[in-house]
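Mods, move this if it's the wrong board.
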Amino acid sequence: MTRRILGGACAYFAVVFAAGFLLGTIRTLLVAPVFGELAAVLVEAPIMLILSWRACGWTLRAWDVEGRRAGLAMGAVAFVLLMAAELVLSVLVFGRSPAEHLSAYAAPAGALGLTAQILFGFFPLLRSGGGRRAFSSGPSAASSPPWSGFR
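Not the wrong board. Structure tokens:
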């Protein structure tokens, strides 16, 4: 696996995980107690998917990851990093066992979150193509970081 794929996967994961940590904190502390866990995830998931889509495009360009196989590999590595980080966070911060963490995916909110995470993993494949960028975010997106469109 090339440095570009691994570097892109790490950068993609880091940007999305940082945003997810921030939004997840807001969801857990402010939104879920008032509206319920499922409603909170229903609000958070589209925001995270939009951010993930933008971060994916930026990362593919910044790390020069081209081709469907490279996109698939980048997404797979980023997904594994995300799942591992979620597990570590769940165990160390929330005091859950690994079995408790995994069983949370069976609840509606957990299943919705997992679906969004799986989409995160497939975005590099969907956005990469042989020599061209599928689903481009526009010409100005080539050098802009993923958060630049959110002011």
